Amino acid sequence: MTTDLDLFIEAFNRVKNLGFTPSTRSSNTGIGKTFEDLMGVVENNIAEPDLHGFEIKSQRNLSGSYVTLFTKSPTMPRSANTYLRQSYGSYDVSYPDIQVLHTSMFHGRFNTHIAGSNFSLRIDRLEERLYIVVQRADGSLDESVYYSFDNLRQAIQKIENLAFVTADTRTINDIEHFHFTNAVIFYDFISFEHFLNLVEQGLIMYDVRIGAYKTGSKRGQTHDHGSGFRIKKENMSRLYEQSIVI
Asked: Exposure of 101 by Cβ count < 10 A (0-12 exposed, 13-18 middle, 19+ buried)?
């Protein structure tokens, strides 16, 4: 994948000069969709960077410090998220017949979860797998869910060159508006091995986010937001050799 930094900077500055622009989607993901619409990006879930060779990540200026690098379902077993939710999830407050699973975990240490099981990550370089380890209430371990290194490498290809964009936000006539003010371009991704090292150091977190639709035609049904690898925005530069602020 080739990149064109000059074209990206030109397009970003054009969007920045627009000032506050109404969100094109009425949800938390509105910021990303609005920026992509303004930049001329067709919404996609394919394993290719978004624009001019750069994957786009966007965040409100006052939002939390973690940024999702990529989302991807585990390699095995099939329907791994359904298995985790049904085996170790809790019940939704609004829909008590629906099991949900919201948990964040790191390598080498177990978290605690309301349903009684604990979660952690384990990297096995000999098997070339990253395991989601579940410690059951009786102390036994479940390591049946994992990512193969090959699948992780494929996912990482999308973020080898990345643009992190931030925006001011305000509500006008009950519609959120964004002013995209800053962008940092990260490029020359260091290596897959370095990514694994950052996971082992606890600098990359893994999230499972499976809830229930609260509104709309799917209300009361399971809503899988995707399983994602996340990093604090101040640590994003650790993944790359180079960065440019525009």
From this structure: buried
Q: Under a CB-based contact definition with an 8 Å cutoff, are residues 198 and 204 in contact?
A: yes
- Write the pLDDT tens digit of every residue in 80-138: 999 999 999 999 988 989 999 999 999 999 999 999 999 999 999 999 999 999 999 99
Angle between helices 5-16 and 30-39 (to 10 degrees): 110
Per-residue tokens: 164: 């992190």
Contacts (Cβ under 8 Å, ≥6 apart) of 190: 239, 240, 241
Q: What is the pTM of this model?
A: 0.88
Distances (CA, A) of 223 to 33, 100, 220, 227: 19, 9, 9, 12
What type of residue is 182? N
Beta strands 55-60 and 66-71, pairing class: unpaired
Six token digits for residue 41: 């990006």
d(CA 14, CA 126): 48
Rounded to an integer, the average pLDDT of 3-25 is 88
Q: Tokens in use for 20? A: 């506050």
| All residues at 6 or more sequence positions from 24 whose CB lies less than 8 Å from its CB, including other chains | 30, 33, 34, 37
